[in-house]
Amino acid sequence: MSTSTSYEAKFRVWRGDADSGELRDFTIEVNEGEVVLDIIHRLQATQAPDLAVRWNCKAGKCGSCSAEINGRPRLMCMTRMSLFAPEDTITVTPLRTFPVIRDLVTDVEFNYRKAREIPAFVPPAGLAPGEYRMRQEDVGRSQEFRKCIECFLCQDVCHVVRDHEENKQAFAGPRFLMRMAELDMHPLDEASREGLDRQRAVQEEHGLGFCNITKCCTEVCPESIKITDNALIPMKERAVDRKYDPLVWLGSKIRRRRSD
Ligand code: SF4
Ligand code: SF4
Ligand code: FES
After folding, report:
1. What's the gap in Å between 58 CA and the centre of ligand 3?
2. Residue 50: which CATH number?
3. Domain check: are 74 and 85 in the same one?
4. Among the atoms of ligand 3, which is closest to the Cα of residue 78?
5. Spatial separation of the C-alpha atoms in residues 215 and 212, rounded to whole Å
6. 31-78 residue pLDDT tens
7. pTM here?
8. Which of 43, 78, 106 is a domain's end point?
């Protein structure tokens, strides 16, 4: 039922599939306190029953309702209608960086593929999980990165892949570069024991060098993770330090010669 603060909003919503699509106009009721996802649900209930949209929690925690609202990557469930003036037209489109399946639903498989390419944490030898000890500073850093809800808004906005499909092969994207930074900075990770070199891999296999620290990823993160300042820039420094550290360089040469 309408409240006294209801109004009719103008919405433009992208409808279509992988082959073709277009923006469709709707006029739809908005009530006080609602978010964009409420309006999309009302559209489904009243005017477009087959409108495809992905969502689960409606609480900003599952990361599935990502879309572009007036061109900006956002969670639909966390975007209040009060952000907009009643006379505004609100345009809702699917994430541009990933292939459309239907309407507002995109195929985000790229991200799962990149996640699978990152070797997991290698626990310290000889210690049971309850015996791990870390400084609070290291715990805090991991906790910040682990707030990630995998909404992939940062992946969507990053210009390295947004306008360059061909870069997807060689670039993991901010979410996964951050994951690699987390593991590399983890004081208990013993990746080298398994023959893994995370600093080499992040540069040579996952494209850290493509990132020119524009911070667009940080700006859209709904968890306010400082992706660029706290993960990508430190990871660049670590990888570069290593490259220009003469002892590290000599060590890697000797190791390479031994394995030849
Ligand atoms: S800071 Fe790097 S990873 Fe983030 S959006 Fe810019 S280029 Fe992409
Ligand atoms: S880092 Fe932020 S924007 Fe990127 S996937 Fe995680 S929560 Fe979403
Ligand atoms: S529905 Fe879960 S984050 Fe929006």
Report:
1. 4
2. 3.10.20.30
3. yes
4. 4
5. 9
6. 999 999 999 999 999 999 999 999 999 999 999 999 999 999 999 999
7. 0.92
8. 106
